[in-house]
Amino acid sequence: MKKLLLNPGKIFKFAILFGALLYGSVQARNSVTMLDDKLVIHFDDRHRKLVNELERATRQRRQKMYAFFDARDTTPVQIYLTRFEATYRKLVEKGIPEWAQAVAIPERRFIVIKVTNAEEIRRLPQVFLHELAHVYLHDYAVSAIPVWLHEGVAQWLSMEQLSPDEKLRIGNALAANRLIDFEAMDSLLAFPAGKAGLAYDLAYTAVEFLTRQYGVSGLRGLLHQWQAGQSYDANFMRIVGRDFIDFEVSWYAWLEKQYRWMVLLNVENLVLLAFVVLFALALARLKWRNHKKKAQWQREDQFMDDEKEPE
């Protein structure tokens, strides 16, 4: 999720929420474990196997993240896993959309993740890494960076690649000419779930393309040297030597090449393709049978000619 800025008026509410989490944790037989001397995970003891699997599943990507951000802050990140929807909804009242599974408050080095159903458990490793990336990106950047870049980096560091469904979503957006402008992603938290999912997908591809064009060092330069008071063009020209419009045009062409064909994998298109293939096979079989029948007639005619007595 996009990082949330806390003003003094929110500190009291945050303290109440923090106290509620602590109280709920005690009531739910809270356990605590530390990872890498950097992360403190608070969880219901009944989730111990889940936390052990989380530690194993994210081990390599955590190390990649620490190296990418050159993470040196010794203040641990406090991470709460909650199975209570009501506890998590306390944060939703502050503007977090219904589709969000987690929230990070980087200024407080604080993350809350809900795990209330099988799908949220399946997504836990990626969500965990995504929110952690927001915290470390807050430490790393010297100025506020655009939402698309913030979310794109968090996605890029938290997942191996887009899933087939995510690739298909991009292909459909390309075919329907409904890509989301980078600047429009500043309103990501107000998007409905489907549009938000597409925004995350596009942000990921933008960062992936950035690394292809300028390398990981170029991406790190953008994050560390971005100046919020300057335009996209000015920042790109100053940091990577090309203006933003060049990057955007190149990214779009690459996106078309990589994902537009995915539209063929829509169910209705697959059905149509299957129908065309079956129709072609039926025509081929009919042609083959006709050819075979014609050859048989020719043989029969030849046989009859041979059987005729000479006059």
Quick overview of this protein structure:
The protein has helices at 8-27, 48-69, 85-92, 118-140, 147-158, 164-175, 193-225, 232-240, 244-259, 267-307; strands spanning 30-35, 39-44, 77-82, 102-105, 110-114. The protein is α/β, with parallel strands linked by helices.
Task: Report on this structure.
The protein has 311 residues and is of the alpha/beta class. It folds into three domains: 1-140, 3-Layer(aba) Sandwich (Glutaredoxin); 142-265, no CATH class; 271-303. Helix content is 63%, strand content 9%. The protein has helices spanning 8-27, 48-69, 85-92, 118-140, 147-158, 164-175, 193-225, 232-240, 244-259, 267-307; strands spanning 30-35, 39-44, 77-82, 102-105, 110-114. Helix 2 runs parallel beside helix 4 (118-140) and helix 7 crosses helix 9. The radius of gyration is 29 Å and the shape is globular.
DSSP, total strands: 5
CATH class category name of the largest domain = Alpha Beta
Helical run tally: 10
**Intertermini distance:** 98 Å
Number of domains: 3
Structural class: alpha/beta
Q: In what order do the strands lie side by side in the largest sheet?
A: 1-2-3-5-4
Largest sheet: 5 strands, mixed
Mean pLDDT, all residues: 84
Low-confidence stretches: 2-6, 269-273
- Sequence of secondary-structure elements: HEEHEHEEHHHHHHH
Shape: globular
Report the portion of residues in β strands.
Answer: 5-15%
Radius of gyration over C-alpha positions, nearest whole angstrom: 29 Å
The portion of residues assigned to helices is 55-70%
CATH topology of the largest domain: Glutaredoxin
CATH architecture designation of the largest domain: 3-Layer(aba) Sandwich
